[in-house]
Amino acid sequence: MSFAHPTADVADSAVIGEGSKVWHYAQVREDARLGENCIIGRGAYIGSAVELGDNCKVQNYALVYEPAKLANGVFIGPAVVLTNDHFPRAINADGSIKSAHDWEPVGVTIGEGASIGASATCVAPVTIGRWALVGSGAVVVKDVPDFALVVGSPARRVGWVGKAGVPLQAGDVGEWVCPQTRERYIENDGALREAHA
Question: Which structural domain, as residue segments, surrounds residue 170?
Fold first, then answer.
């Protein structure tokens, strides 16, 4: 059974998966789809038709604008913003107020297990790879590879992380090892993959 706090604003057409919780003052817009066991924190915003997989966490005051797509196990830190407009304007060139028909939203896609740190901004359209880690306050303006650790503005890769989220340590040439799980990863042409994959 899902739960929505009485102060939450959940559209009738939104689909909230089994075991998911929507907390104080959060808003989940029309046709949004939350998987099972998701947590939407206080004051968070989930835009129209946004899709979340199972076991996602969207922390307090994060803004997930449509048409974002989050895979299973994605973590969105407090006050993160996923944008949706290349060239935002309140008005058209003729001075008329922009309507929904005057622009085409573009989204942020986030792969399985990835984490976006507090107050980071992902400028659409970008794809954040599987198990990647975006550091707090980063501004992501280009795609992030699987397992990449990116920081700064604009965000740049400063290392690799494994599924446990800890920075990997260099092993043999082209090999990286998780100090926590001892899992091995292979780097090839700027991409990282699990050694057993």
Answer: 162-197
